[in-house]
Each structure stands twice: as C-alpha cells, then as structure tokens.
Amino acid sequence: METKRRVQELIQILNDANHRYYVLDDPKMLDFEYDRLLRELEELEAAHPELVQPDSPTRRVGGEALSQFQKVEHPVPLMSLQDVFSVEELEDFLRKVQDVEPGASFSVEPKVDGLSVALEYIDGIFIRGATRGDGVVGEDVTENLKTIRSIPMVLEDAPPRLIVRGEVFMPKKSFEALNQRQEAEGKPLFANPRNAAAGSLRQLDPKIAAKRGLDIYIFNVQLAEGVTYQSHRESLEHLRTLRFKVIDFDVLSSIDAVCQRVRHIDEEREKLDCDIDGAVIKVDDLQLRQRLGSTAKSPRWAAAYKYPPEIKPTVIEDIVVQVGRTGVLTPKAVVRPVRLAGTTVTNATLHNQDFIDERDIRIGDTVLIRKAGEIIPEILEVDLSKRPEQSIPYALPCRCPVCGAVTAKDVDGAFLRCTGAECPAQLSRNIAHFVSRDAMDIEGLGSAIVDALIEKGHIQSPADIYYLTLDQLKSLWKSGETAAKKLLAAIESSKQQDVSRLIYALGIRQVGAKTGKVLASSFGSLDLLATASLDELTQVPDVGAVTAAYIVDWFQQEQSQHMLERLRQAGLNFESKRVVTDTRFAGMTFVLTGALTKFTRDEATERIEYFGGKASGSVSKKTTYVVVGENAGSKERKARELGIPILSEDQFLEMIEG
Questions:
Q1: DSSP states of 553-613 as a string?
Q2: Neighbours of 390 (CB within 10 A)
Q3: Domain contains 46
Q4: Which of 78, 99, 229, 553 is a plausible cystine mate for 235, CB 3.0–4.6 Å?
Q5: Long-range contacts of 488-496 (CB under 8 A, 24+ apart)
Q6: Residues 559 and 616 in one domain
Q7: 293 & 318 share domain
Q8: How far apart, in whole angstroms, are the C-alpha atoms of residue 361 and residue 382?
C-alpha cells in the first residue's frame, strides 16, 4: 500500500508540475527536481507494472510504432470556417449576424496555424484523438497526441462523454530547435511550423512525435453529455477548470471593438508562442448559433479573418556560404535590412544551387522577400527591371570555403557537399560517427568530451584521437586521471577492431556498417580497398555504381590520405580478420524473427554475412529464408503468405555447420 500511495503521489506532483509548465506557463519546480521525481516514478513502475496509471507522465514518451493509422468517424463533424480577407468583408459578416440579433456578442481569438484534432474522453479518461480529415472522417493519432504534455490524460469531474476540438502546433522555439537538428544531420529544413507539426503528428512512430515538442490550444466543445452551456465563453471557461490549455479569447459586442481586436492580434502576433495566420470570430451565444445554422461546408455564425502576407523589397548585398556538420554547403543571401512581420530581416536562405538558378538570383538584385510561415525569410522573385548592368549569375564554390577540399553534388539531390575528411566544419559530427558503437566503439568519448577537445585544439581530425595524452584528458573530468586513463585504454583497445568497422568509421557516403563488412571481406585490407577500381568495386554485392564512385573519390582526396596515414602510424588494424572464402549464402537474404535461443540477433546476422549473405529486417518477395524463433509474429505470417521457406533455429544451424 505504501508503494501504491507513493506512485499516486508522484503522479499528482508531476502532473501538477506539467500543468504549470505547459499550460499555465508558470513553472514552480526546478528541472532537476522534476527529473529526480520522474526517475523515482519510472523505477517504481518498472518494479510494479500493475501500478501504472493512464495519466502517468512516464507514458508521454511514445509507445510502439504503428503500421498505419485507423480511420475515425467524428460523432460531431469538424467543420471548416468561411474566410474573409478584408475589414469590409468582416464588417459585412458581423452586420448580418446583428441583423438577426441586435447587440450580439462575438468571441475573437487568434487562428493558430496548425493541425485541427478532436480529443475524446469517456468518464474522464482520454481514449481517442483524431485528425480533422475531411471533417467527417479523420485518422486516429491517439498515441502521438499522448506525447503532448499539455493534453490531460485524466479529467476530474468531467462529463460522462466529452469531445473537444483543438489545434496542434509546433511552438516557435521547438521549430527552431528542430530545424537546427535537421541542419546538423544534413536533412532538409521544414518550411514552417505548420508543416513541421503536421508531419510530426502523422509519424507512425510516436517516439519521433515525442521528440518534436508539439503543443495544443483547445478552442471548442464538440460534445459534452449531461452539460448545457449558454455561451461559448462559458464552455471554454469550463474547459479551463478541467485543466485544458484553452486559446486566449475576448468577447466583444460592437463591430468596431471586434475589428480593433482583430488588428491588435495581428500587431501582437510576434509575441505569441505559436504561428498564426489570422483571427477567428464566433458568435458567443450558443442558441443564436443554432438559429443562424450552417451551410454544407461551414457555419454561418463564424468567420476566419486571414491576414495578408507581408512582402517587401530589399537588395541582395552579398551571398555567403555556410558548411553544415554533414558537409552540405548552404548559400545565404545577405540583404539590406528590412522590417518584416515585426522583426528586422538581414538575411534569407537560398537553399541550394537549383533554387538560385530557378529564380536567377544574383548579388545586387532587388528582390521581394517575405517570411515563410512568419518564421523563415524567403525570396519570392527578382525585380529584373532594377538589375545592375554588370551582374553575373551566381554559382556555389567548387571548393569548400572552410577547408578548401573539392565540393561534389549529390547524385540523388540538389545539395553540394564538402568532400574533406578533416573539414573543421564537419569535425564534431565526423568524430561522433567515428567513435560510435558500430564503428570504432570507443566508450566514454561522448559529444561533450569531443566538443571540449575540439575547443581546446587537441583534435583536428578523427585520427588525432589516437594521439591524445593523459595531460590533455585529465582536466576534462572531476575524477581527473582515473577517467582519463579509462578513456585512453578504450582508445588503445579500439586499434584492434576489425577493419570493417574502420571502413564504416571513415564516413564514406553510402557505406554503412553492413557495406563495411562486405568490403572488408571482399578485399581483405584497407590498402587493397583504397586502390580498388570502379569495376572491382561494382563486382561487390550491395555496392552499386554510385557507392563505388563515392568510395573511389574519397580515397583520392588529399585529406583522406593524410588521415589514413596518421591512423596507420597510430597502429590501427588495416587487415580484415575474416575474408569470405565460403560463399554458401551468396545472393541469399535472410530475415530473423522471434526470440532466438541459440544465438543473439547480432550473432546470427554476423554468421549470415560471414558466408556472403544478407540479413534484412523485413519480409519481401526477395527474401530467401525466414529464420523463426519463439513467439514469432507478423513476419512469419507474411512469409507463409508469400510462400517463402521458413527455418527453425536448428535448421539454420545445420546450414551454417553444413
């Protein structure tokens, strides 16, 4: 009983802290204290799974990935609103309402630019959340919605059945952080918070949604069994008492006051935590709403005033190129300062060479600029009538502006990349990859230590890891010499890793851990791989023409040769510990499923690859065999449907020993 009381107490404390932080924006608990209590709750729930509650904050990190979203029919349709684009149209809408009911009041609220959803509660328990879809049928995104911490999982004193409507959005801070991660990982940036929110909410893996920092504003009661409201204001105030994060709103009765409030929301939009694209004006009196009725598409008692995008001219004074952590060259226009959507804009992204060529953007051009999604400045078009006579087309540099290495265009995209193996702009990421578990597996060399070593100038290349000294390392930890010696031992031990890991660690494009093993087995040494021709490489299983070209180009680079020589001098193993002489599994693809008892999953995969085969994670018509362990599930069923041979572990072992 004591444990049960403590679990309930922790849930209450942490949920109160979440409500203050995510809904009231008034945190009272320090992050350190929150994390300590959350860890205590996680440990208690792990030891006593029967005590896990639906509203436990530990359930906010995302569950198992889904294969698809189920369809949900909305009991009350999620209707769209009629748009108005001018003050005159807005006044006309307001007058029509007041012609029916003189002195009618209106709720005015920001129109959040996100994704509309319906949340359903039965006896106070959150049971389902669905996207708007076409207004009648949406998609079940319950698991993703559970990761939004401002959505209460359990309501006190709620109606037996309650459905509310809200707008899921990505806060501006979360959006900026997401795009920073995208840029660091060499992935395309999201154009605006709405696209990012929609993409996040529709992830089949809830764990991805949980990392995106989504939020929600509730703005309507769709259904509340046993409760009668007189006004919209009353319904929203009731939702606030249930601890929902309710949209800010004002109830006004005069046409002038409504129009003034709409203008004020526009002026204050930069101060909001979310992106908006207008204001929503609704009749407050719910009985009047029924009298006004609806058309087939939208209610007659509400309108959405859409703010026009702010577009201004400016001049491109320069184009500078930044090199990301993955080596992607990103051009940026430096523009004459211009006030736009509440902030001063001094630069705009140009994305890539294709973007520049399509718009024929040049230094000195006068351009029209706006903020995409009110966040990212973007260039819409060039005013050719104001182009300087001496202007010339702009081309990204053929050499990296940071390290001077040759740049190369992606075969499968529009991006230009630095090919330098020791480029300072990519150093942190390259080292993180080099020491990772599937590469050189150097435990203790985390990102914080790597960044500290780079900042102190101790490493300028992955090879420099093997030249670190005790004096350089011991000042990085409180435990000093003990931790430093442990790391040096891990670095020394990694020198004996199989060359397949080193090949993967080099970071050659499209050469993953599996391809590293295949290359090591096929060539036997790093030196033979370094001198291999395109023809020799394309004869290797799973190495196509594009990958072969990347490999040849990498070994020809001056920085690559310098790094390899430093690694050789440091004593790293350049020879494969296993060369494939028995290719009994060549051309075969195996899928492992269920709990294996005679091997670990990694051991079984290693044996398949040792004999020239391939291990895959999914069953398809190209699968040769499916190896089935205990409690096998959908993969075994699919194999039977496709007529693919199924092996027990004993049969698989016979093939290996045969």
A1: HHHHSHHHHHHHHHHHHHT---B-S------TTTT-EEEEESB-SSS-HHHHHHHHHHTT-
A2: 6
A3: yes
A4: 229
A5: 490/442, 490/443, 490/444, 490/445, 491/442, 491/445, 491/465, 491/466, 494/435, 494/440, 494/441, 494/442, 495/466, 495/570, 495/571, 495/572, 495/573, 496/573
A6: no
A7: no
A8: 7
Question: 330-339 — which CB contacts under 8 Å span 24+ positions?
Answer: 330/183, 331/356, 331/394, 331/396, 333/361, 333/367, 333/379, 335/367, 335/369, 335/377, 338/312, 338/313, 338/314, 338/369, 339/312
Within a domain: residue 104? yes
User: Would you state the pLDDT for residue 372?
Assistant: 64
SS3 166: strand
597 and 575 inside one domain:
no
Residue from 531, 520, 538, 526 nearest 580 by CA: 520
The pair of three-digit structure tokens given for residue 637, joined into one six-digit string: 């069923």
Query: What does the block give as tokens for 316?
Result: 């491109």
Under 8 Å between Cβ of 604 and 594: no
Q: Are strands 82-84 and 302-306 parallel, antiparallel or unpaired?
A: parallel
Task: Provide the domain limits for residue 25.
Answer: 2-60
Return the SS3 of 13. helix
pLDDT reading at 392 higher than 90: yes
User: Between 491 and 64, where is the model more confident?
Assistant: 491
Domains held by the chain: number: 5
Q: Please, what is the end-to-end C-alpha distance for the chain in angstroms?
A: 58
Domain CATH for 175 = 3.30.470.30
Q: Give percent of the chain with pLDDT exceeding 70.
A: 93
How many alpha carbons lie under 13 Å from residue 583 in its C-beta half-sphere? 10
Q: Is residue 408 part of a domain?
A: no
Q: For 391, which DSSP code?
A: -
Phi, psi of 108 (to 5 degrees): -120, 125
Tell me the helix, strand and coil percentages in the chain, rounded to 5: 40, 20, 40
SS3 312: strand
> Do 263 and 366 share a domain, yes or no?
no
Q: Within 13 Å of residue 463, how many CA atoms lie on the same side as its CB?
A: 17
Structural domain includes residue 412: no
128: closest CA among 171, 167, 80, 75? 75
Task: Return the residue matching tokens 């060259």.
Answer: 329
Q: How many CB atoms lie within 10 A of CB 373?
A: 21
Rounded Cα distance between 122 and 124, Å, is 5
3-state secondary structure 336-381: EEEEECCEEEEEEECCCHHHHHHHCCCCCCEEEEEEECCCEEEEEE
Both 38 and 82 in a single domain? no
330 and 238: one domain? no
Are 431 and 462 in contact, with CB atoms under 8 Å apart? yes
Q: What is the pLDDT of residues 104-162, one digit of tens each?
A: 999 999 999 899 999 999 999 999 999 998 889 999 999 999 999 999 999 999 999 99
CA distance 378 to 365: 14
Beta strand extents in 21-155 (DSSP E only): 71-73, 82-84, 106-112, 115-122, 125-131, 137-139
Write down the pTM of the prediction.
0.60
Cα distance between residue 129 and residue 368, in whole Å: 41
Active site residues: 111
Contacts of 44 (CB under 8 A, 6+ apart): 3, 6, 7, 10, 51
CATH no. for residue 612?
Answer: 3.40.50.10190
